[in-house]
Fold this protein.
Amino acid sequence: MATLTRQDLNFGQVVADILCEFLEVAIHLILYVREIYPSGIFQKRKKYNVPVQMSCHPELNQYIQDTLHCVKPLIQKNEAEKVVMVIMDKEHHPVERFVFEISQPPLLSISSETLLSHVEQLLRAMILKISVCDAVLDNNPPGCTFTLLVHTREAATRNMEKVQVIKDFPWIVADEQEVHMEEAKLIPLKTMTSDILKVSHSQLFCTESQKLNEIL
Amino acid sequence: MDYLYLDNIDEFVNDQNKIVTYKWLSLTLGVHVNTAKQMLYHYLQQKRNEGSGTPLHATYLVSGKCVENGSKCHKVSVVREDKLNAVKAKMDVTISVHVYSVQRAELKDSSPLYNTDYDAVKENIKNCNKYSTIRCAAAVPMSSAEVQRAQEMALVPPAGKEISKTGLNENTSATPKPSAKQPAGIMGMFASKNASKSQESSKEVKTEQKDDSSLVETSKSKTASKANPMSNLFGKSAQKKADEKPNKSVKEETAASSTAPAIMEQSQTSPKSKIDIKDEQSKVSSALKVESKDTRNKTKRPEVVDSDDEKMESQQKKRRRIKKPQPDSSDDEVVPDSPPVPNVQTPSPKKQVKREPVSHQEVSITNNTLTEKGYVSESYSESEEEPEPNSQAKDSSSLKQSFGKREEEKKEKREKKTSTANKPTKQPSIMGFFQKK
């Protein structure tokens, strides 16, 4: 059995690959489940041996892929702290945030056969959790949009600004408005810990006071 | 009879927010499936009578006889509670109805149901029907020797046939992003853009394939480093590719002399074997699995887990859909907020035409260079003059360079290729095109 340790060049790449694939699937699934886009653009595909809904829209897919493509080097160097998918209403106030916290445990090695199928199992469980998350979430107002934010450790973004990983796909510092959410309620969804990565997926949503006034 | 199970189910559903299917419940609690079904029913009744707390949603399995498309059939469906009565009314004879699952969330499609059962069944794979009533005396696990033999048999016929786009899916260690999306009806709207993207990625992978087997080795070693189970599966298909490669190179050498009709025949038969390969690939990797869009009335055939037939059927359905994109064009209006997509209105006749060449193209990669040449010639003429391509097939030497370009032009294909052999005349223009990219 080949054993890779942290020092191996491939290792970081492998972890980043796995994680980015998972994030892509998760993002598409959140878009489907939270009805950000009409369900007509989604198509059933297979990932980790279970069906998942992925969008067919090329520009949407391209946006997500480009974003993750830029995030991947950060994950490889363990500089990405969390990837956040913010769902905003028409006025660009955040309504929900799906936060994927990523950390890599210090002692890492990919060794046994079962490891990756174990990871697959954990990711499957994550996907399942996303599918049922609307049991614990309120419905979103119509006309929501989403955006992806990345929180990095230290000053990794400075490098990103210098080197455009993808042409014509610039990253900008997020507005405070998008990042900060008032009266946020934290709902943890799922945590998975494995030997190669630790991902916790928590969700914050905001019950804005304006909303309450409307109900009353 | 103790009612502890009610508390158990309550915990699963409300506290852990799980989807509790009867199958999962029977495996978890170690009871017969019929008992599990009754437990779920009992739980539902109790909760509904209490009338308090969070709303529960349930899905039911309805089985009965009905007449569909003029023929009688036995239909088994998983339906949401709100559709239950409608489905029951549609059936001539309702044979059985039972609770399939209970959950808090209102499910939008059937994928989480499958997901729930997947791991539970996988763990108990040796005796997953321990608690079920379905039995077949002949269904015993194969010995490892038999398994080996079956794998070899599966590898041999497809060898020498196409790798096709599934090659994209299985060994894209270079491009981990999801591989090219197969066109479907709704894709008509996005077709042009998507086709160009898929062509790019397919171009990358195919040029990879076209290069020496050393590339296959490196990609193999990459995947081997990724994981052994994955690499076993990948290795199998990568090996298959490697086997096919010598066939391909031999064929390329003798390309000029091979006869056109023979190739056309082969390309006809290979779509069928492609389905077999797709079955394998779909097991191997995150391959595309386009299922029928039946989300409203969730239809599950009883043998849901590991159903090759289902995959084959879905492939066949996909094929059917490819040939008839028009009926689904009504889906184009579904996306009101989508950002303006240029080239949206590709005329529909083009749609059909371009799909068919796709399938043949997939066929042709490892199979016959002459068929590929046919494509090459098309793309050539298109780059120079817009109108319909003539088939001036080129030599295999130019094939590799023009291969990628052919992918580019795929979206503008007019008609199927015919294959004759000529010398290339427009070498510089191809490279020019590449640089333009």
Confidence is low (pLDDT under 50) at residues 204-216 of chain A. The CA atoms of residues 118 and 159 of chain A lie 34 Å apart. Strands of chain A lie at 4-5, 42-47, 50-55, 80-88, 94-103, 109-110, 145-152, 184-193, 198-206.
